[in-house]
Amino acid sequence: MKVNRISRLPLILVLTLAACSGGGGDSAPGDRSAATPQRIVSLIPSATETIVALGALDRLVARSEFDVDPALAHLPSVGEGLTPSLEQLTALRPDLVIAWPDNPSRSVIGRLEGLGVIIYSPEVQTLADIRRATTDLGHMLGLERAADSLIASIDAGLEEVRRAVAGLDPPSVFYVVWYQPATTTGSGTYIDELIRIAGGRNVFADAPGLWPQVSMEEVVRRQPDIVLLSHTEDTPTDVDRLSATVGWRELSAIREGNVFQVDANLYNRPGPRVTLAARTLARLLHPEAFEGASER
């Protein structure tokens, strides 16, 4: 799904799709003959989280308004990550900007490149893409060992979750990126992968496209066992109201209380916290597998 097709959709959906959409491929991460970046602006929250996880917080000189980590609160905001203030951004004299894949309506990357700013614009769709982007950032920042260690930690954490739910019957899961219109995840996305790792089955894994819009008639026909509603603190879903809405109220998962709100700032960010997302998801799908286990 192209980024330029989502400009009118709600912000939570725009950020989710933009995080996982490309404009024709990545820009090259560059070679190490150039100076290692010391003044970085990341407009992609998941990339910002990766930089922090690599131990390079001190190299960030700004944040976007969607970066919610308290450790970043002291940094100035350059506005929305999709449409930042270019004047404010260039005044910070960054030697590297990590930007969303571009589209003609915004052309942020092109304008930054015209100002001589070095851009890295990763396309992240899958868990493999998360590993690749982490490797790229580690290379660019001269933190290869930290990147290797972070990737190993992510893989070990995901494998731990996979083992915890091995052999359990997988419930069918309807992951709702947005509910008006109903938009979900198809196969070929890291969320689809996380559902499987957590012991579930994506009820729309066969849908065309990565982030398809689906009719409520089809959702009702498929009757998912569990409904997951992604939200932020600013955009909570009124579950009671949803339960009274035509279509949604026909879902047995809604009627039986098998509907859960999940944090979009965790689930919709393909970065180093995917292990935490998988673990919390597994606890929702298979609480019996974690009885007596401490929260981590």
Give a topology summary.
Blueprint: H1 11-19, E1 40-42, H2 45-53, E2 60-62, H3 86-91, E3 96-98, H4 108-114, E4 119-120, H5 127-140, H6 144-164, E5 172-176, E6 178-179, E7 182-183, H7 190-197, E8 201-202, H8 216-222, E9 226-231, H9 239-243, H10 252-255, E10 259-263, H11 264-267, H12 274-285
Helix pairs in contact: 5-6, 6-12
Structure in words:
With 296 residues, the protein is an alpha/beta fold. It has helices at 11-19, 45-53, 86-91, 108-114, 127-140, 144-164, 190-197, 216-222, 239-243, 252-255, 264-267, 274-285; strands spanning 40-42, 60-62, 96-98, 119-120, 172-176, 178-179, 182-183, 201-202, 226-231, 259-263. The strands form three sheets. It has a four-stranded parallel sheet with strand order 2-1-3-4. A four-stranded parallel sheet has the order 8-5-9-10. Helix 6 (144-164) runs parallel beside helix 12 (274-285). It is globular and about 55 Å long. The model is unreliable at 1-12 and 22-28 (pLDDT under 50).
Structural class: alpha/beta
Span from first to last CA? 35 Å
The biggest sheet, with number of strands, parallel, antiparallel or mixed sense and barrel status, is: 4 strands, parallel
Specify the helix fraction band: 25-40%
Order of helices and strands: HEHEHEHEHHEEEHEHEHHEHH
- Count of DSSP strands: 10
Number of helices: 12
Shape: globular
> Radius of gyration in whole Å, from Cα?
20 Å
Strand content: 5-15%
Strand order of the largest sheet: 2-1-3-4
Overall mean pLDDT stands at 85
**Low confidence ranges:** 1-12, 22-28
